[in-house]
């Protein structure tokens, strides 16, 4: 069975890009799960690690780019949390899971396709 | 006073106006010819596939998002009647009242209204009328919208064309004989470029040639698209194409155009026509019944005081008034609604909110396209209901009674995207005074369409179970009352936009403070005496200032904002003036900093001056025999890449002014693309009729200017034209963002766009406000605008401020906010530090943090940063997210 992937979307940017995906004839495998947060800045290290603990081998946080975040600095915060969580995984030497942050503009389907291709 | 209004056309503009009027307590009837709302923004309409993408200005964005939630929340209101598939059969004006008869699918109505809003938009010009383009005869000739659809469905990839030609202005800028309109349709250059961008993404090797008259890319977002097209080797050829021929064997289209002075026939695989805008014949009939002819509409530009009212009670807005793109039409909608918006009296709320405890599921099969029935009862044993259409009043009624009958306080909506439906659902519950919390499971866009038919059921069950798990931890929304506010609005910037907004607000009884940094009001326009767009701006501004003084507005010159504290609704501003500090409280702040002039690489001499110098002294014109205008001196260059919008109109106005007064004088305009978009085209036509000479120079290749024997010589490099010798050359300065913007963005915590203008909440659809209410933008601070556009924008912002003040002083249901658990709070100030909007404060004496629910934006950054987890994000508690992850990770359901 394929590795389970959890994607945290931002309600204001990547959620919309996912809405657009199907218009571009993209489809998802059923090992990929989507959930959304009001702002990716609200994500905690706990949410990331708990996902890994529950069996997700890839956790992606898709926020906005630096200068067009709805909550001004939400994406930057999310990025920092992800770095923190990655650091913890590295410290305990757990290499079966990966956590990553990507910033993309709302409606940027091309970048999203590229990200999904790397899964 | 409550009045009743008829809004004709439920497109983006009609919906916005209906919403504004309803919010202010008026009764609104919205009549729409088609069976769905959304107009051009609706991508689900079978007749106009894909049209949604084309008409937005800067971004690729599905239009459905703009209107669905608005339409749902309108239909949830009892003061609004929405009639689809309906027609107005009779309309009569009698003593300021409008007597109408409406034929609706179920019932016919007769009704008397106090006012009528015309917002029917436009219909695309039918290219079949211009038979020379072979549209409808040759299969290789398409409209832009058809191309867009082929690109989306992937049809074009199967049989990729090698060479594609785009022909602009089909049906627009046609002043001769035959079908087509004389005006410019405004948005077609932009949408052709967007289609080229899409085309190049899908088929990067396609050769693309664009045949155009002027590339009217006046939007701030459009320049980037143009640069990208140039990088992608798209050729732009300035040529009017008179006919398309067929290659006899393959039937492929041949275009004949002028290439270096010679005709060239070129074969293309595909020709794309950019259709212009036209009026719907039904609307023409309606207008005729009100004694308004089509020409009257085309010539209508409104007065500066009332830009949208043609007669008392009859208003025009959106692209019906003037061809315009999505962003401009939203501004126009707000400005048109403004006269009807008043400051409400503050009423102590008597509303009692019903809090129910049951959880339920609302399924929507989206007009039969989602197999939700197979999910029913498989996830949880909860009360549920299935509706078929969220844009149907009866179906929404079912949801209403479902909530009431089953006493539902928390519900999962399983249907389409959350962005579309959420605000509507919340409004629906609020209208029934139910304090309900909703979660949305996106079964459509992010379910069925993404995972496909086979995987749908398993995935949908998990998503639904996850949403239910998460909902357990959410709290119900709370009613927050805030009554004791001051109606003080501070306007930063005393230019045209700031003053006009101040005038509009004081008219409605709001007390206003205008803070201007310089020692006089009026900004860039304060000395302009030559009429610009029919307005003598110097007099106009003096009149407004006088009016404001009479109304008791506080006008502060030489003043500057130095400090901002407090939260939206209750700002404390510190203003510095002559070294003294002044404290002012404000409920709302309008940023109207305008733009600064950019002079490019040019310097002023006695014979080379800038537009600002010309407009402020009309005498200059009488002293010289030949005058030239050089466009884009300070725009569209390396220093300022975008179009300043205002300068072509200014030059046309000045040129017409001088030519009408002194017909014997020679007037030249040197330009790249004359940005006489929309109805401004009539100015261009008039200028040509008067004998003003237009000389084109290529983009970036500014003509050489020499000073010879007391004259100015402009080297044209054209075969047909000798060098032009002038007495006076007027350069068009450009508009660049105000340097103050950076400081203000930091002070008020708003964003800047890539050029340095203030960034609205959504470039296309917001119509002049920031994500955070309480701070607003008016005029050119948001992007370059013409004088009329500045006035519209100021009125629209005044409308937004009034709506905001009305919301503030009346009770409202707050759904998205975070709350401090006082027992846990250690007053460590982490939340105060991390909040992007400075909402949390530590209350003196109590030593705990407090988050004002009205100002809180609900992002939850504080909740995740709080070291002691003393903050709960009510709309998405962290425990809920964790519970959802466990459900999604688990096997089975």
TrEMBL record, chain A:
<keyword id="KW-0560">Oxidoreductase</keyword>
<feature type="domain" description="F420-non-reducing hydrogenase iron-sulfur subunit D">
    <location>
        <begin position="5"/>
        <end position="118"/>
    </location>
</feature>
<protein>
    <submittedName>
        <fullName>Hydrogenase, methyl-viologen-reducing type subunit delta</fullName>
    </submittedName>
</protein>
<dbReference type="GO" id="GO:0046872">
    <property type="term" value="F:metal ion binding"/>
</dbReference>
<dbReference type="Pfam" id="PF02662">
    <property type="entry name" value="FlpD"/>
</dbReference>
<dbReference type="InterPro" id="IPR003813">
    <property type="entry name" value="MvhD/FlpD"/>
</dbReference>
<keyword id="KW-0411">Iron-sulfur</keyword>
<keyword id="KW-0408">Iron</keyword>
<keyword id="KW-0479">Metal-binding</keyword>
<dbReference type="GO" id="GO:0016491">
    <property type="term" value="F:oxidoreductase activity"/>
</dbReference>
<dbReference type="GO" id="GO:0051536">
    <property type="term" value="F:iron-sulfur cluster binding"/>
</dbReference>
UniProtKB/TrEMBL annotation, chain B:
<keyword id="KW-0004">4Fe-4S</keyword>
<dbReference type="Pfam" id="PF13187">
    <property type="entry name" value="Fer4_9"/>
</dbReference>
<keyword id="KW-0408">Iron</keyword>
<keyword id="KW-0285">Flavoprotein</keyword>
<dbReference type="InterPro" id="IPR039650">
    <property type="entry name" value="HdrA-like"/>
</dbReference>
<dbReference type="InterPro" id="IPR017900">
    <property type="entry name" value="4Fe4S_Fe_S_CS"/>
</dbReference>
<protein>
    <submittedName>
        <fullName>(Fe-S)-binding protein</fullName>
    </submittedName>
</protein>
<dbReference type="GO" id="GO:0046872">
    <property type="term" value="F:metal ion binding"/>
</dbReference>
<dbReference type="GO" id="GO:0016491">
    <property type="term" value="F:oxidoreductase activity"/>
</dbReference>
<keyword id="KW-0560">Oxidoreductase</keyword>
<feature type="domain" description="4Fe-4S ferredoxin-type">
    <location>
        <begin position="816"/>
        <end position="845"/>
    </location>
</feature>
<dbReference type="InterPro" id="IPR017896">
    <property type="entry name" value="4Fe4S_Fe-S-bd"/>
</dbReference>
<dbReference type="InterPro" id="IPR023753">
    <property type="entry name" value="FAD/NAD-binding_dom"/>
</dbReference>
<dbReference type="GO" id="GO:0051539">
    <property type="term" value="F:4 iron, 4 sulfur cluster binding"/>
</dbReference>
<keyword id="KW-0479">Metal-binding</keyword>
<feature type="domain" description="4Fe-4S ferredoxin-type">
    <location>
        <begin position="847"/>
        <end position="876"/>
    </location>
</feature>
<dbReference type="InterPro" id="IPR036188">
    <property type="entry name" value="FAD/NAD-bd_sf"/>
</dbReference>
<dbReference type="Pfam" id="PF07992">
    <property type="entry name" value="Pyr_redox_2"/>
</dbReference>
<keyword id="KW-0274">FAD</keyword>
<dbReference type="Pfam" id="PF13450">
    <property type="entry name" value="NAD_binding_8"/>
</dbReference>
<keyword id="KW-0411">Iron-sulfur</keyword>
<comment type="similarity">
    <text>Belongs to the HdrA family.</text>
</comment>
């Amino acid at each position: 069975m394929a590795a389970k992937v959890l994607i945290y979307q931002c309600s204001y940017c990547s959620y919309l890009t996912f809405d657009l995906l199907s218009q571009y004839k993209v489809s998802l495998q059923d090992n990929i799960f989507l959930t959304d947060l009001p702002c990716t800045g609200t994500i905690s290290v706990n949410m990331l690690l708990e996902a890994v603990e529950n069996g997700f081998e890839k956790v992606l946080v898709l926020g906005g780019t630096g200068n067009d975040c709805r909550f001004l600095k939400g994406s930057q915060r999310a990025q920092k949390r992800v770095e923190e969580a990655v650091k913890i995984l590295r410290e305990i030497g757990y290499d079966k899971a990966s956590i990553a942050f990507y910033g993309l503009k709302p409606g940027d389907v091309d970048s999203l396709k590229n990200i999904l291709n790397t899964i | 006073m409550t009045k009743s209004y008829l809004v004709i056309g439920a497109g983006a503009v009609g919906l916005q106006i209906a919403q504004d009027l309803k919010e202010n307590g008026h009764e609104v009837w919205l009549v729409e010819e088609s069976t769905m709302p959304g107009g051009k923004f609706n991508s689900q309409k079978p007749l106009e596939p894909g049209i949604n993408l084309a008409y937005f200005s800067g971004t690729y964005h599905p239009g459905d998002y703009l209107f669905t939630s608005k339409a749902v929340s309108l239909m949830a209101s009892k003061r609004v009647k929405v009639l689809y598939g309906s027609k107005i059969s009779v309309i009569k004006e009698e003593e300021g009242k409008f007597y109408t008869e409406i034929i609706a699918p179920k019932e016919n109505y007769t009704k008397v209204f106090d006012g009528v809003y015309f917002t029917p938009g436009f219909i695309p010009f039918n290219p079949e009328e211009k038979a020379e383009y072979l549209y409808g005869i040759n299969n290789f000739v398409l409209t832009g919208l058809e191309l867009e659809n082929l690109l989306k469905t992937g049809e074009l990839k199967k049989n990729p064309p090698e060479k594609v030609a785009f022909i602009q202005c089909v049906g627009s800028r046609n002043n001769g004989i035959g079908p087509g309109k004389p005006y410019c349709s405004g948005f077609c250059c932009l949408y052709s470029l967007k289609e080229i961008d899409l085309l190049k993404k899908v088929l990067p090797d396609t050769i693309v040639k664009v045949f155009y008259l002027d590339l009217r890319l006046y939007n701030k977002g459009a320049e980037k698209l143009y640069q990208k097209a140039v990088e992608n080797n798209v050729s732009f050829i300035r040529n009017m194409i008179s006919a398309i021929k067929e290659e006899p064997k393959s039937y492929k289209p041949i275009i004949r155009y002028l290439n270096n002075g010679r005709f060239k026939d070129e074969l293309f695989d595909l020709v794309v026509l950019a259709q212009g805008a036209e009026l719907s014949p039904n609307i023409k009939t309606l207008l005729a019944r009100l004694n308004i002819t089509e020409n009257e509409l085309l010539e209508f530009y409104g007065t500066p005081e009332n830009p949208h009212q043609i007669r008392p009670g009859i208003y025009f807005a959106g692209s019906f008034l003037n061809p315009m793109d999505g962003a401009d039409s939203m501004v126009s909608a707000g400005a048109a609604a403004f006269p009807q918006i008043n400051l409400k009296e503050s009423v102590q709320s008597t509303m009692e909110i019903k809090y129910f405890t049951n959880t339920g599921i609302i399924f929507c099969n989206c007009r039969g396209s989602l197999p939700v029935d197979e999910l029913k009862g498989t996830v949880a044993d909860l009360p549920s209901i299935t509706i078929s259409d969220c844009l149907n009043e009866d179906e929404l009624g079912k949801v209403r009674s479902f909530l009431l009958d089953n006493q539902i306080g928390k519900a999962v909506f399983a249907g389409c995207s959350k962005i579309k439906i959420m605000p509507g659902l919340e409004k629906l519950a609020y209208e029934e005074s139910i304090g309900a919390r909703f979660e949305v499971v996106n079964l459509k866009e992010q379910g069925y369409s993404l995972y496909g038919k086979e995987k749908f059921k398993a995935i949908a069950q998990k998503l639904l179970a996850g949403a239910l798990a998460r909902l357990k931890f959410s709290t119900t929304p709370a009613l927050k009352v805030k009554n004791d506010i001051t109606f003080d609005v501070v306007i930063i910037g005393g230019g045209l936009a700031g003053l006009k907004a101040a005038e509009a607000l004081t008219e409605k009884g709001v007390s206003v403070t205008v803070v201007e940094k310089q020692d006089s009001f009026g900004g860039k326009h304060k000395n302009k005496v030559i009429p610009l767009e029919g307005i003598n701006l110097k007099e106009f501004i003096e009149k407004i200032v006088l009016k404001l003084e009479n109304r008791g507005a506080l006008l502060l010159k030489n003043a500057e904002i130095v400090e901002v504290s407090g939260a939206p609704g209750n700002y404390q501003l510190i203003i510095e003036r002559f070294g003294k500090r002044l404290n002012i409280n404000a409920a709302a702040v309008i940023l109207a900093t305008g733009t600064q002039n950019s002079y490019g690489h040019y310097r002023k001499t006695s014979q080379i001056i800038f537009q600002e110098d010309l407009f402020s002294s009309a005498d200059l014109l009488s002293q010289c025999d030949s005058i030239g205008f050089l466009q884009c001196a300070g725009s569209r260059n390396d220093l300022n890449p975008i179009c300043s919008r205002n300068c072509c109109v200014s030059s046309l106005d000045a040129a017409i002014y001088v030519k009408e007064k002194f017909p014997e004088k020679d007037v030249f305009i040197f330009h790249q693309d004359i940005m006489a978009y929309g109805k401004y085209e009539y100015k261009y036509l008039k200028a040509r009729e008067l004998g003003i000479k237009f000389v084109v120079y290529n983009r970036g290749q500014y003509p050489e200017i020499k000073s010879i024997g007391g004259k100015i010589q402009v080297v044209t490099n054209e075969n047909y034209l000798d060098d032009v010798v002038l007495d006076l050359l007027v350069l068009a300065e450009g508009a660049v963002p105000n340097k103050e913007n950076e400081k203000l963005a930091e002070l008020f915590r708003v964003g800047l766009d890539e050029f340095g203008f203030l960034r609205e909440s959504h470039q296309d659809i917001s119509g002049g406000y920031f994500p955070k209410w309480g701070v607003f933008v008016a005029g050119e601070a948001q992007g370059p605008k013409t004088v009329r556009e500045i006035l519209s924008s100021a009125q629209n912002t005044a409308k937004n401020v009034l709506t905001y003040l009305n919301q503030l002083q009346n009770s409202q249901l707050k759904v998205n906010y975070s709350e401090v658990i006082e027992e846990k709070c250690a007053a460590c100030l982490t939340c105060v530090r991390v909040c992007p909007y400075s909402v949390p404060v530590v209350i003196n004496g109590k030593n705990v943090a407090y988050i004002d629910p009205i100002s809180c934006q609900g992002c939850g950054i504080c909740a995740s940063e709080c070291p002691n987890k003393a903050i709960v994000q009510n709309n998405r508690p962290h425990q809920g997210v964790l519970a959802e992850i466990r459900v999604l990770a688990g096997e089975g359901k």
